[in-house]
Automatic annotation (TrEMBL):
Reactions catalysed: AMP + diphosphate = 5-phospho-alpha-D-ribose 1-diphosphate + adenine
Sections of the chain in a coiled coil: none
Protein EC: 2.4.2.7
Subunit structure, as described in the record: Homodimer.
Protein's recorded name: Adenine phosphoribosyltransferase
InterPro entries in alphabetical order: Ade_phspho_trans, PRTase-like, PRTase_dom, UPRTase/APRTase
Gene: apt
């Protein structure tokens, strides 16, 4: 399937989570076997081209796409978790959200010194979570130069923020508005 055919599998839900928002729901893509497989293939091709030795994905939908890409490539997956979810000593980073703050954590022993890690998530909006994940992975000695997404919402300028931070950013599709 082409990225355009995959894009047709993404459901748009108006007025969620607030009036005026068009929520791009990947649930319909994930539940479509051929669509999900094609999406993973496209992301894996891009991750291979970036020299990925491991894939990192942020909780929660980044786990779905990231783990599938890692398995397809035969490389490890690094879960970037919400606080308190890992049973070992972690390193973490606090970051700003549109309406508050949040935190991400990883197991730093899961990343060998200098390992080339590609970040994968379902959607790039403002870029805050992906920027925090890149910084956190770099704190753990990973080499992070690429971030891949299923969907970009270019009107929110997240991809531009990541590029300004030195990351190469690619998305399979984009949707105008937010």
């Amino acid at each position: 399937m082409t990225p355009e055919e995959i894009k047709a599998l993404v459901r748009t839900v108006p007025d969620f989570p607030a009036p005026g928002i068009l929520f791009r729901d990947v649930t319909t893509l994930i539940s479509h076997g051929k669509g999900l497989s094609a999406c993973v293939d496209h992301l894996a091709d891009r991750a291979r081209a970036a020299g990925a030795e491991a894939i990192a994905g942020m909780e929660a939908r980044g786990f779905i796409f990231g783990a599938a890409v890692a398995a397809r490539m035969g490389v490890g997956f690094i879960p970037v978790r919400k606080p308190g979810k890992l049973p070992v000593n972690t390193i973490g980073i606090d970051y700003a959200l549109e309406y508050g703050r949040d935190r991400l954590e990883i197991d730093p022993t899961a990343i060998p010194q200098g390992q080339r890690v590609v970040i994968i998530d379902d959607l790039i909006a403002t870029g805050g979570t992906a920027l925090a994940a890149a910084e956190l992975l770099r704190m753990a000695s990973a080499s992070v130069t690429h971030a891949l997404f299923v969907i970009d919402l270019p009107g929110l300028h997240g991809a531009a923020r990541l590029r300004d931070a030195g990351l190469t950013v690619e998305a399979l599709m984009d949707f105008p508005g937010h």
